[in-house]
Design a protein that fits this description.
With about 210 residues, the protein is an alpha/beta fold. The protein has one domain: Rossmann fold (3-Layer(aba) Sandwich). A six-stranded mixed sheet has the order 3-2-4-1-5-6. Helix 6 packs across helix 7. The termini are far apart.
Length: about 210
């Protein structure tokens, strides 16, 4: 049995500006840093055999804040990147609604039918995430690991753990920055013990 602790990077400047990020980056906000530190305090008694992070700076910095004081190295794996959004990256949701409504609607309402002109499709994201997952399941049997990645990446992993189709990608819990998901992974299957949990942050701070 392997226990996977899964979290999203902290809030960024582009998050509060309602911009798509994908492979591009923007700095963590003060709140994003604070929440990462709070999650680190919450997890301080958990012994991680390994810590993995997306190479995006927002994810790596979140991992550093969570792991402050630990000696376990943070391993970078490009397969944990967010979905590549191509020319959408840096654009606001309002801009995309006005200029690429058909594709934008498909992205959020029918992800199984979505195709990207200059970025990745959801199937490409799924394939690289599952390749990473299978690798760690072999390498860390019986261990506890931490993964710091991105919102859509976590949604895709949750879809896999639940065995749901791509059309149900968005039906799981909202994935706030630094929310915690815990999965027990065995040869017989995966059990979600916690999903998108934010109890390390006061509830009124989420508004």
């Amino acid at each position: 049995m392997m226990i996977i602790y899964l979290t999203r990077h902290g809030e960024t400047e582009w998050n509060i500006q309602n911009r798509m990020q994908g492979w591009k980056d923007s700095p963590l906000t003060a709140k994003g840093q604070q929440y990462a530190e709070k999650l680190g305090h919450r997890l301080q008694s958990v012994a991680f055999r390994a810590v993995y992070s997306s190479p995006s700076e927002r994810a790596f910095q979140t991992a550093q804040l969570i792991c402050e004081g630990r000696t376990t190295p943070i391993r970078i794996d490009a397969r944990l990147k967010e979905i590549h959004m191509g020319e959408w990256e840096g654009k606001t949701h309002d801009f995309l609604k006005q200029n690429d409504l058909e594709a934008y609607t498909a992205f959020w309402e029918t992800p199984h039918l979505y195709t990207s002109k200059t970025g990745e499709g959801f199937d490409v994201l799924k394939n690289r995430l599952l390749e990473f997952l299978k690798e760690i399941q072999v390498n860390y049997q019986g261990e506890t690991i931490l993964i710091v990645t991105h919102g859509i990446a976590i949604k895709m992993l949750l879809s896999h753990f639940k065995g749901t189709g791509m059309e149900q990608l968005w039906t799981s819990s909202f994935i706030h920055g630094t929310s915690l998901t815990i999965v027990e992974s065995t040869d017989q299957g995966d059990l979600i013990l916690l999903e998108g949990d934010m109890t390390h942050v006061k509830q009124d701070a989420l508004s």
